[in-house]
Structures are given as structure tokens and as C-alpha cells.
Design brief:
It is a single chain. Helices cover 33% and strands 23% of the residues. The chain is an alpha+beta fold. The chain folds into 3 domains: 8-281, 3-Layer(aba) Sandwich (Rossmann fold); 316-393, no CATH class; 405-461, Roll (Archaeosine Trna-guanine Transglycosylase, Chain: A, domain 4), CATH 2.30.130.60. The longest helix is centred in the middle third of the chain and has 21 residues, at 203-223. Bound molecules: S-adenosylmethionine. S-adenosylmethionine is lined by residues 94, 113-119, 137-139, 142, 165, 182, 184, 212, 216.
Amino acid sequence: MGKPQLPNAYVQYMRQMLGKEADAFINSYQQPRTHGLRFNSLKATPERLQQVTELFSLTPVPWCESGYYYDENQRPGKHAYHAAGLYYIQEPSAMSAVEMLNPQSGETILDLAAAPGGKTTHIASLIQDRGLLISNEIHPARAKILAENVERMGLASVVVTCAAPGELAARFPATFDRIMLDAPCSGEGMFRKDADAVTDWTEDLVTLCVNRQWDILQDAYTMLKPGGTMAYSTCTFNREENEGMMERLVAAYPDLTLVRTERIWPHLNRGEGHFVAILTKAEARHANIGESEESMSTAKRHGKKGKAGRQNNPGKETQSAWDAFIAWSDEHMPDHVVRTGRPLLFGEALYALPDSGAALLSDERLSGLKLPRAGLHVGDWKKGRFEPAHALALSIAPDAAARMQHVTLEADSDLTAAYLRGESLPADAALKGWTLVTVDGLPLGWGKASGGQLKNRLPKGLRRMQ
Ligand code: SAM
């Protein structure tokens, strides 16, 4: 099937906007799309980076130090290193937004429209997984994919929430040092990679997106701390959703400053196209303005209401589960320290809330909030028995993995493919119990050894069926 034709109204709009440059821009739709991946700083040593650069003939993305282009006939998304969270497949121009946001270790950060997780995993990589990153996605199915991607990258600092921006704003007024808002948009920068984006486009869609972006931006403003920084980005080209939206925002909120805007264009750069704006919020001038007043007005705007949700179990059970995890951890992974502030138990699932989130994420604040991932999922508490989670395996640094009971597979071996399909592997008869399975030293998941066999403990949903 050929490519769908660009909508006439869109072409006319862009011709008017770009003038002499329009032909080059329109012609860029005849060029092939670009492909990119971004390395995970928690797992990529310089040697590994060198090896993978050669393996996939990577070339650097100019605006992102950890970002690389790959050729479309390479398939890094199918490689075992992808399952091990060594890199994240991301459209190259989308890598510009988090670089411009410039997040720092130890900060409290919000990614407000986060699925499938490109910007969240980029933020976590830049802050070296230190601090608190609330990564939110409104649609439950997409929030689940986001949580899986966060787990694959082995992150402990990320809490995944599934809420409307207004619900979050009522709970977290003036809270975040930095906010990433990668807004739902009309997707004009998706036309080369997604034919549906072309056929879905109408002028009404642009208007709908503008209205939605305006609502979300007001909630983002509410949640930004005085002195904080926000990045607003889209993968669309029209002015209304980009510069127009920023002009309207700074006019409505005089304490916001538009620091800079950048565009990546497909006819000028190697990328599908992106708009990024950086805004800062002024420090509060009076001690009595800020959190409390803003908190009240936000609660009023959204009519904060308690919704029955998953509750953490009584303290005693949570403590028993946590004690069992610590005992298991001392025995099986003495070098791996889970940075945690607070254990949370949801049913059987035991989570470690990031240290810096313990004060912010009180029971009261979390009550009624959908939490697909309340920090690092360390394991499951099954009738008095602790079992380690897949997410825990992926969070283990390669050097700590080398000092645990483990089996190392080679990336291209049949055994690696068999493990990723969920099959049992032959094992040394002396090997017993929980065993970390690694690919060239990078954790892939758990196995449980007995009688010369390593039973596969890869979650069923992650097994490759080919
Ligand atoms: N930041 C993501 C990444 O880098 O992988 C991509 C985010 S995508 C551009 C925008 C997201 O906004 C989608 O996941 C979509 O489900 C979500 N969304 C849609 N409507 C929304 C709304 N009203 N409020 C907040 N998010 C919304």
C-alpha cells in the first residue's frame, strides 16, 4: 500500500507558515523516516557502548549525548540487549526535550503525559535514578506499557501513576522542581512513520488538541514549584499547538517566563520533528503565597474527591513482607542495595517507594490514586514466602550481578532465544535455587535451578512467541 496523501488543508497551512522553505519541508515526506535508540546510563559502560555502536553501526544524534541513529534494516528492538534494558528505542528528535529540561539528581520531577516512556526513561537516565520521578499516564492500557518500560530499564526512582492531570494537580500543588509535559497533539511529525496519523488529521483535530493542551498546561502550572522549570513539547508543526500555546500561557500566568523554544524540522535536521519550550516559574515573593493558597484553589477547581482504590495493607503484614525481602536479599544479593524510603504492599506485590518520595507520597496523598507501579516492585509475598520480582532482577547493576549466583548467556546464542521464549534451560547439577540469568553480564530475569535444570521465571507477558 502506498503512503496516504497529505491533507490539502495541512499542506496549504504549512506553505503559508514556511513560505520559501515550504517545498523542502513538503518534499521531506518523500524521504525515509529516521530511527534512533538512547542508551540507559545505569547499564551502559563505555566498553558496552563501543561494542553496541559497532554491532548496529550507530551514529550520534547531535542534540543528545546518549542518543544514536540506526539503519532501518538493523533491528535493535529485537535484540536481547533491548530486553535487558540497555537502550530505549526512541525517535531521534524526541530526545531533544529532556536534554533541554536538564533534570538533576535528587530533584522531585513529574512527567505528566508519559506513556510509552521515552521521556521518563530519559529523565531517569540523566538523574542516574536518584530523586523522585512521578511518571503519569491517563490511559490505563498505556500506563501498563509505561510501567513495563520503566521496569525493563531497571529504575527504582520512578512511581507510575494513572490519573487525569487535574486529579494529580489537586494532590500535588507547587510540588515539582521540574515538569515534563509532552502533550497529546495532532501528530504532524508522525506522518512519515504512521499512516494513521495522516488520515486522522483534520483542522478540527488541531482545535481539539489546542483545547486539551490548554487544560493540561494549567494543571502543570499548578504543580510546578515556584523557582521550578517546565518543558512543554509536541511532535506537531502548527503554531497554534506550539508557540501560540506558549504565548497564551505566559499571558495568563505572569510569573512564568518563556526561556527558550526550539524546533527540529525534518527538512533541516535528521529527525521526524519536534517542538520544545522551556518555561520557569518565578520564586514566590511572599512567604504566605504558594503552597497553601495554591493548594486550596486547585482543590476547588477540581473538587478533590476520594475514590476507592487499592490501599496498602496493614503495617504488620507489610513489615513481615519487607523483613522477608531483606532476609532474601541478604542471602541472594548481598551487594545490591535497594534505595528505599517506604515499603508498600498491594495484595501480594511488595514495592519499595523511592527514598525521596517517602515524605511526599504519604498514605493520604496516595489514597484513591491508581498506582500501576509504586516504585520498584521488589517481589511478591505469597502466604509467608517471598519471591523476587522480574523488576528487581532488571534493577541489578551488571557489576553486582557478577557477584551473585548467576548464569551468563551469550547474546546470539540459542539459549538466550530459548530463555526469552520462556523455556527451561539445562543447568549445572550443583546449581540450586534463585539464579540471575544474564546476557553478556546484563540481567535478563530470574531462573530457579534444581536437578540440572533452570526453570524459567520470565513473566508470561514478556515471553517472545516467535
Ligand atoms: N512522553 C511520551 C514518550 O516520550 O514516550 C509520549 C507521550 S504522547 C505524546 C502523549 C500522551 O498523552 C499519550 O500517552 C496520551 O495517552 C496522553 N493523553 C491523552 N489525553 C490526555 C489528557 N487529557 N491528559 C493527559 N494526558 C493525555
